[in-house]
From TrEMBL, chains A, B:
Residues 165-270 form the LD-carboxypeptidase C-terminal domain. Belongs to the peptidase S66 family. Keywords: Carboxypeptidase, Hydrolase, Protease, Serine protease. It comes from Sphingomonas lenta. Residues 3-117 form the LD-carboxypeptidase N-terminal domain. One of its GO terms (molecular function) is carboxypeptidase activity. Pfam families: Peptidase_S66, Peptidase_S66C. One of its GO terms (biological process) is proteolysis. This is LD-carboxypeptidase. The keyword Chloroplast does not apply.
Length: 271, 271
């Protein structure tokens, strides 16, 4: 089985590529892990120009010998290649797993909306750098290699689900790249935002016409919260309960997803 | 003629209320300017609780003796009162001007979407504190008092227009509060964001299904730009040209709107 790593947003350090390759070779010897050299390109903010990142993604997505596309890292930029890649995906792109989170939510959403492959929200190659990072990336590798359910988000089972960074979800709302999530449990997580912005994006989620048919909402980790001046008087849980109420969709509790070492795996649809 | 000032988001200092009242008394003696005491309330982040802010807005919007509602200040929070106020607006709310910008875009959008009054993007009471602030607020007062066209955005004329802070526009996309802007010139401005976020929100604008029928886009001031690490390699004009191209909508050039003393007046629809 072959897994390809590409970077549709920001680059990774070659050391990250070496570490993740070494870990995969020991823990999953049956896997041929191909870290595309595009992952190490640098074009200012991005891992190569929009054209370079699009070409690398299309190369691995359209290669029938590759079983899974594992995203190297988030950051910002995968939305900039949607118009370049989505019309050029072929049949081979329909039969594989695409796994990542954060900014990669743009691609996961677009792939799910168009019925390409099996998008999955979960740890990326760069997460090997976290404390206990071997265990973190093992959840993703275990799922891609053998559908190992040990790394799945604990609440999954039966009902279709999808998971997004809240800000990325907000940027998808109102566009044709947001998939139909009717009857899905939507899990959201957030990182590096002040609470007033989180509240504002929850307003958008709650009022989004496209999301009226959700089965429920779960809240993942809200980490690295930026300061609010003056201090914000509500917790993330108070906020999400308020907005789910205004949305008329049940708040179902916590989800173990987020920009943390404990980030679990959420296959889109039914796991 | 009577103008009421309310604060649906953050409070203003009583000194701001006094200054703007004194200026209006001298420059527009025919005006009865009523600064609602709610403008000075403080409930953590907000100028009073959601209920207090909603009640003050409804009081002045539904008062037939008031000709115009002038927003005191932006910040964050007017989205939180939409569900409280929009179903409770009466006939008197249909016959007046509502004027503000920034976070007030939530209310201006909702009012325009529902056909209430004449929403206008322009300087608020708090802008009297800017250098040359008398001239800044005089554009808004001149328009409210006597339809003085000297303070209007220079490109206006004939074609319907609307203006928004880009981030607030982004948060409105995909919700029923975004008005139908078909055949409108959309003007956007931004403040206190890093360029990668501006790029990301422009992506959402460009791909928004609701905005496909725009006549064109104009770019206002992009001020207090936050640092980007690594440095962003594009100017705001390069970015907006790129996204307008992907949107298939003409970029029409600059607009004199923004978080600046030069902010002009943009009545929604045909001025």
């Amino acid at each position: 089985m072959k897994i390809a790593v590409v970077a549709p947003a920001r680059p990774i350090d070659p050391l990250v590529g070496a570490r993740v390759s070494a870990f995969a070779a020991i823990a999953y010897p049956q896997v041929d892990l191909y870290v595309h050299p595009q992952c190490f390109e640098s074009d200012g903010h991005f891992a190569g120009s929009d054209q370079v990142r699009a070409a690398a993604f299309l190369e691995v997505a359209n290669d029938p010998s590759i079983d899974a596309v594992w995203f190297a890292r988030g950051g910002y930029g995968s939305n900039r290649i949607l118009e370049l890649v989505m019309p050029r995906l072929g049949d081979a792109a329909r039969n594989k797993t695409y796994l990542g989170y954060s900014d990669m939510g743009f691609l996961l959403a677009a792939l799910y909306a168009r019925g390409f492959g099996r998008p999955v929200h979960g740890p990326m190659a760069v997460d090997i750098g976290r404390q206990g990072g071997d265990r973190t990336v093992a959840r993703s590798l275990g799922w891609m290699v053998g559908r190992d359910r040990q790394g799945l988000e604990p609440s999954l089972g039966g009902r279709p689900a999808a998971a997004f960074n809240l800000t990325i979800l907000g940027n998808l709302i109102g566009t044709p790249w947001l998939p139909d999530l009717t009857d899905h449990v939507l899990m959201i997580e957030e990182v590096s935002e002040p609470l007033y912005r989180i509240d504002r994006t929850l307003f958008q989620m709650a009022h989004a016409t496209q999301l009226q048919g959700l089965a429920g909402v779960r809240l993942g980790a809200v980490t690295d919260v930026q300061s609010n001046d003056p201090p914000w008087g509500e917790t993330p849980e108070t906020m999400i309960r308020r907005w789910c109420g205004e949305m008329g969709v049940p708040f179902l509790g916590a989800a173990e997803i987020g920009h943390t070492g404990g980030n679990t795996v959420v296959p889109f649809g039914v796991a």
